[in-house]
Every structure is written in C-alpha cells, then in structure tokens.
Amino acid sequence: MRTRRFYKITKTLLTYGLDDLIPARWLPWTIRLGRHALFWMPNKHKDKPAGVRLRLALEQLGPVWVKFGQMLSTRRDLLPPDIAIELARLQDKVPPFDGEAAQKIIEKSLNINSIDGCFIDFDATPLASASIAQVHTAQLKQADEIVDVVIKVIRPDIRETIHADLELMETLASVAARHLPDGRRLKPKEVVKEYRKTLLDELDLLREAGNAIQLKRNFENSDMLYIPVVYSDYSRHNVMVMERIDGIPVSDVDTLRARGVDMKKLAERGVEVFFTQVFRDSFFHADMHPGNIFVAKDDPLHPRYIGIDFGIVGTLNRDDKRYLAENFLAFFNRDYRKVAELHVDSGWVPRHTNIEEFESAIRTVCEPIFEKPLAEISFGHVLINLFNTARRFEMEVQPQLVLLQKTLLYIEGLGRQLYPELDLWKTAKPFLERWMNEQLGWRAVVRSVKENAPYWAEKMPEIPNMIYDSLRQYQTQPKQNDRRWEAQLRAQRQASTSTFWTLLSASGLICTTLLWTDSELSAPTIGSGIITVLLAVIAWRSRPKASNGEFN
User: Fold this and answer.
1) CA distance 406 to 399
2) Which is it for the CA torsion 274, 68, 370, 185, positive or negative?
3) Pairing of strands 305-307, 225-226
4) Across the chain, how many H-helices and E-strands are there?
5) Per residue in 349-401, pLDDT tens?
C-alpha cells in the first residue's frame, strides 16, 4: 500500500507539473536524470497557472495534503500572491461529495427512518466542503422552538486514504531519521506520530463536540470570542449538529472594512485570544486558518471573533507554558542571554552548549525584527536563520509544540491580512507580563494556598499519628552505637519540636486563608496572619541543624 501510494503521489505531482516550481539549480543531475528515466509522466495541465495546478494536485492527493496547503495559504510573505490566493480556496471550497450520501449517513448515525423526523428544510447542497467533512444547513426541532443549525458529516471512506498517507509518511520519516544528518535532532518519527494522533482525532466528531463545549465554557460571556452551541444529543462519531452562525469570513477584508470594522482592534484581539487560550486555559484552537474564523456583525467598533471546526486542539503542561512565557518575555526584552540559558535548562540544546556563542547567534537572528510592524518583517528569513542556528547548536525539535508552532503561523498570517501595521510584540508583551506576575508573584502563593487548604485540612489529623509512628520506630531500633544513637534521638527531638511548630504555623496559615476567603481583609484576618508569621519564625529557628556531618 505504501509503494502504491508513493507512486500515486509522485504521479500526481508530476502530472500537474509541480516539479517545474523547483529551480533547476536546486536539483542535482542524478535527480533530473531519474525524473526523465523513471518518472517520465508529462505535465498534462500546461494551460493552467502554477497556483491552480498546485491546488488541484493537493485536492486530488487528499486531506493530509489539503491541510498542508491550508497552512501554506496563510504565509503570503513566503509565497507569490497568485499561489497564496489559490491555496486559500482549500479552506472551505474543496469539491463536495454527494448530498444524498450525506443524508443517508445522517439517518443511519442518528438511527432515524427519515431525516424529516429530526430536521426541517435539510439542504442536500453543502454549505461548505473541507478536506475531511462537509456541512449542510437545516432546522432542528427543539421542544417549543425551531433553531437554525448546520450538520457536519465526515466524508465516506476517508479513513483508508488517511491511513495510507500516514503510513507512507512514517516510512519516509524513518528513512529521514536514519540517513539525514539532522534526522535525530529533527525527530521526524515523533513529529509524524503526533500528526497521526491529531489527524485521527479530527475524524471523531464526538471529540470535536467535546472540544467545542470546553472552549465555549472557557470563553463564556467573552466579548472577544464566541463559540456556537453544540447539540450533543444529535452528535455521533461521524455526525455533529451545531448552531448556525452569521458572520463575515475573517479573510473577507474588503467586506470588513466596508462595514466599518476596527481592523486594529480586531487584529489585537486575535493575538489576545490566542495567548489567552494558550496561557490561561492551556487549551487552544489549533486549526485557526481563515476558513474556520469569522467576525460577528453586531458591533463593528468592538469586533468579536466566531470560531468553528474544533477537531484539532492543543494543550500545554505547566512546564511548557512557563518555559514559553519566559522565552517570549526574554525575546521581547531582548535578553538573549536569558533565552540561551532557558534553552539549555529545558534540555532543548545540549548541556555542553557554549552560552556566549548561542546568545550571539540568537541576537543575530532576532535583533532585526524588533520595533517594526509586521509589514516590514520577513518572518520567512527569520525562520530560515533560526533553523540554521538550531542546526549549529543541535537544538532538538519538541513534538508536543508542533501544534503551537503551526497555530502561531496562522496567527501571524491573519495579522498580516487584517492589519499589517500591528505591533505583535507590543500587543503580546503586557499579556505575558501579567500572566507571569500571576504565576510567580505573591498572588500565585495566595492562590496556591487557597487551592490546597482543603487538602491540608483533610490530612492534618493524620500527621500526629505519623509523628508518633516515627518516634516508636526510632525507639525500637537496636542501639548499635551509643553516641550515634544519642545524636539521632537529639535530632529526632529537635525534628519533633520543629514539626510541632510547623504544624501550628500551617494551621494558622489555613485559618488566615479561610478568613480571607470568606470575608474582606479585617482585623481578625490581620491578627491571624501576624500569629502565623511568628509561628513560622519559631518553626524555622527550631529546625534541626547539622555540623561536620553530625547532628548538634
């Protein structure tokens, strides 16, 4: 299957003449000879422009390749305008499958004899068609009302094509990892494995429905982002029913401007929505190409985004968030020494890396991009330079951040389309500074205490028994060495005393926290806090001390 798929991909690319897009100077004579000797398929679409040929080839190859084209369509700084415009059509204008087949899939999945049993005015002509699914409009009968909905249906027999492409990608990744000089550092097998999981998750519409519900809860009553209602009772693995939204595609810049939309605020809110999802919620929409983002029509001066298609979401753990935030802030502050140290501390580059050389290399790449609007920044050149820097210092690709990197590309592409003068750094820096202060400042300590106070209160009654069991264990041990035994007993008494005062100070801390939680700052709360501080000082002074390897 992999061999056949490889042949089909090669044949498709050559049939559409896409090898003509590669400059001849980039191809050694051996590849050119093999092209004419083994892969002699002629270009059958010489009458079509390059952008059209590329789009048609990607459509024919299937969803894995269509999604690659979708990502490229947002990178207008890297592609000629005609190719970028054609690739943008992949976002929601992929050729649909038969509407009657979609209706049968819906009826079978919902276990109904006729679609009229649940829906009114089902339109067999799709509203939009994408690489993995297509959408039909209808009205849903809900108790005493009828609501406008869209029904998303997975393409039939799409799984076989996806599995074939993924198996081929895994084979190519294994070859790359084994033979390319940078194979180990780039981790192609891990990246393909992560992509496989992401793509297969997108085939499960119940998972997408859950993602949508989570995002809607995260942005409840938000004036920046609206998530449509999902009707989970009518959703299955291959069918999902969702509220129909009325918005303007974010890529339709002319209409947005004609309606008087504040493009600067719209672009800034896009950046803020992204960073909020990543750092506040650790749960972000990872397929934010223009076909999945709309702008509400209700308030042009305070525009609000509408998001759809939640098949791909990303998550970050606490360490990843902390690392990313510190790196962003260090970049914004031009603290390249800090950036270099963070990379080493996180294990992204080897411990033997020369910090001074790494710092100098990062400065060379990043310094030119600051204090410039997006329109004047060539991120394509920056990415190339960063890649060369990564190769030089053996920086390893982090597969868990592939989705985040892709989403950042989408965000930059959207910002470039909406408001090229947007200062991305000035917009993002205050948000990240607030987030870091919340994570590292005294507010973070108070929040952590409030979160853990119930658990500490539950475990506190068990602590005296644990201390008693520890003392009994020491008393029953044989006295092999009198001096050592006396030192251990003395240390144990000091530890018990310190533990006693520590428990008292912990109790005071819990009481202070509970008082603060239940009411405003008051005299009892302040008094409890003062007592807690005194108890903590006593506990610290009574701690066991060591000198010359023996306890005093």
Assistant:
1) 12
2) positive
3) parallel
4) 22, 13
5) 788 888 888 888 888 877 777 666 655 665 555 655 665 676 677 766 665 66
Cross-strand bridge partners of residue 326? none
Integer Cα distance of 321 and 272 in angstroms: 16
Beta-carbon contacts of residue 327 (< 8 Å; ≥ 6 apart) = 339, 342, 343
Catalytic residue among 287, 320, 335, 423: 287
Distance of CA 298 to the CA centre of its chain: 29
Q: Which amino acid is at 357?
A: E
Low-confidence stretches of the chain (pLDDT < 70) are 1-2, 19-43, 71-72, 74-79, 91-93, 179-186, 370-388, 390-391, 395-402, 425, 440-451, 455-456, 459, 470-471, 473-529, 532-533, 535-537, 539-552
Instruction: Please enumerate, as own/partner, the contacts of 482-487 that have beta carbons within 8 Å and a separation of 24 or more.
Output: 487/550, 487/551
Known catalytic residue at 262 = no
- Measured CA to CA in angstroms, residue 445 lies from 417, 437, 450, 451 at distances of 41, 11, 9, 10
* 3-state secondary structure labels for all residues of 473-515: HHHHCCCCCHHHHHHHHHHHHHHHHHHHHHHHHHHHHHHHHHH
Query: Tokens at residue 451, please?
Result: 């979160």
Length of the chain: 552
- Structural contact between residues 251 and 92, judged by C-beta atoms closer than 8 angstroms: no
Packing angle, helices 424-440 and 442-459, rounded to 10: 40
